[in-house]
Design brief:
Number of helices: 5
Number of domains: 1
Helix content: 40-55%
Strand content: under 5%
Shape: globular
Order of helices and strands: HEEHHHH
Structural class: mainly alpha
Strand order of the largest sheet: 1-2
C-alpha cells in the first residue's frame, strides 16, 4: 500500500511539469483574476485562481486559460505552480519516512488527494518536452524551493 502511494507521489511530481517561463514568487493575495477568452458566443469566463498568468508559457497561454476555467469549474480554485511544488515536495518527504504509522500514512494520503485536486491546472500542460524545456522546468522547481527556504 505504501509503495502504491510512493508511486502516485512520484507520478505527481513528474506530471506537474508545466510549460512556464518563470516560476515567480509565492504570494498570498486574495485578488481575483478575470480573463476574457474569445469564443464564438463571446462569453467571458472567470478564472478564480490568484496566481500570475504571466508565468504561463506564452505559446500555450490561451489554451491554458481555457482549460483552467474548466478545471476550476470542476475542482475549484487552483494553487500556483510554486505552491504545488512546495507542497508536493513536503508530502513526498513525509512519505519517505520508513517508520510511517498507518494512521499517519492515511492522513498523508488524504492530504495528497487535496494537493492533487488543487494542482490540476499544471497537469494539463505538455509532460514531454525537449531537454532544454525539462532543464528549464527543473530550474523553476529549484527556484520555488529556494524561495520557500527548502533548498
Amino acid at each position: 500500500m505504501k509503495n502504491l502511494f510512493l508511486i502516485i507521489t512520484l507520478f505527481f511530481l513528474i506530471a506537474c511539469k508545466p510549460g512556464i517561463e518563470d516560476a515567480g514568487t509565492i504570494e498570498d493575495t486574495m485578488d481575483t483574476l478575470v480573463v476574457s477568452i474569445p469564443e464564438e458566443d463571446s462569453i467571458e469566463k472567470e478564472i478564480i485562481s490568484d496566481y500570475d498568468m504571466s508565468t504561463v508559457d506564452k505559446k500555450n497561454s490561451a489554451e491554458f486559460k481555457e482549460n483552467l476555467v474548466k478545471i476550476e469549474k470542476e475542482f475549484g480554485e487552483q494553487w500556483s505552480f510554486c505552491d504545488c511544488v512546495v507542497k508536493g515536495d513536503s508530502i513526498n518527504k513525509a512519505f519517505m519516512n520508513p517508520n510511517l504509522p498507518d494512521d499517519e500514512f492515511d492522513r498523508l494520503a488524504s492530504r495528497l488527494d487535496e494537493i492533487d485536486e488543487k494542482c490540476q491546472a499544471f497537469r494539463i500542460q505538455n509532460p514531454s518536452g525537449t531537454p532544454e524545456e525539462r532543464a528549464e522546468h527543473e530550474k523553476k522547481v529549484r527556484k520555488c524551493l529556494k524561495v520557500a527556504g527548502i533548498k
